[in-house]
Inner spore coat protein H
Amino acid sequence: MARFGAWMKDRGRARRGSPHVALALLVLALGLAASGCRPQSPWGPPVPECTGTGDAAREDAAREHGQAPRAYVEEDGLPVLHLYVADSLPDDDEYQAARVFYRGRCYAARARYRGATSKVFPKRSFTLDFLGGQTFDEPLLAAGFTGRRKVVLISPFNDNSYLRARLGFTLWSRMSPGHLEVKTFSAVVYLNGRYHGLYTVADHVDRHSLSAQGMDVQGELFKAVDSDANFSWRDASGRPKASLRLGYEKKEGDPEEGDGAYASIEQLTAFVADSHAERFRAERGAWMQVEDYEDWWIFAHLAALSDSVTKNAYHFRAQGQARRWRYIPWDLDASFGQNWDTTRQAPDVMDSFTEENRLFARMLEDPAIRQPLRERLHTLIHTTLHRDVVQGLIDTYAAEVDRAARKDEAHWGEAYRHFPRWNQRTDILGFEEEVRYLHDWVDAHWALLEEELR
């Protein structure tokens, strides 16, 4: 009963202000009292407790091997993450109690669905928040993925290659050792004891992940959540903006809300939008880490990031006199030959995204910036990001996830083919064909980039 009381307290704190939830909790509490205070779990299957006693509930596949979640740690050559959440996990942004088993360790955690697009998928993405000072550790993959306070489970439901996110974040990291990274690896997820499929495990961009990369833990972090985050006085539809904060959500830093919360990102936008060419060229290095923002354009042009050239980006600024804005990429499913809804994007579409992003336009309209920028892109595609390097990464990741991807495809294939957004399409590809398409797209796109830069 004490455990249930603690759970009730947490639930009330998480969802305070909702009369429907309050009523549901009252009914549940009365039911428990009537049954002699025997806790009726909100979970579907019996929930494993992080007791270290080995009495955790078994999931379907593990039963066949006589294993508990603590022991069932690998499937098809990939690590297995067991996630237990309440069956009533809501569609809103609130966290709910969760348990995570990974490589023999149990974590008390909170979980929520994430992503505006993913929330309508049958196979959704999650954010996991580890409690009580615990940190998630995967020391063997992604060159060390340890000490994480939060992680993201990215659903590849709209990526039949299962590797675009990993490929994109890897290329971003390889562009420059000074970039702020988002590390990733692939894992099989079991949800409430049942197979749920192949996921990409990724860093959660926040003050903790940035602090681990040497950034100021007290700095400000903004996420561009829609296309109005375009460094312009006009919104994505061309209408005057009521405020330069449009398109952003503040994720970290003080003040969190109210007057002044968005002052810094508004000042950056005003600098980009208003300054004349000479001032922009001369002072941009005092405002931003120039290589970050030039590389953002290169990255977008290189990988055809059709949905990540304004929104789906993070902007971070440390405190102090030397503070300069930094860029971190996010949400890379619309890349390498497809849009966010999986529609095909031809490799000869060489968009510079200057109509969408005023910052890109400012850089490219100034010959003193544009020419070195193009020279850097030329150098990258002939060295660090040579097409053979990219093709090798595709081969490596595809081989790594091959068995897990085919199993996921067998499990989710019907739901994918009948998903309303694309169920009328005739160009849907399976895993093997999508990987081949990715290879062909990179070959063609890189060849056109070389022609463009001659």
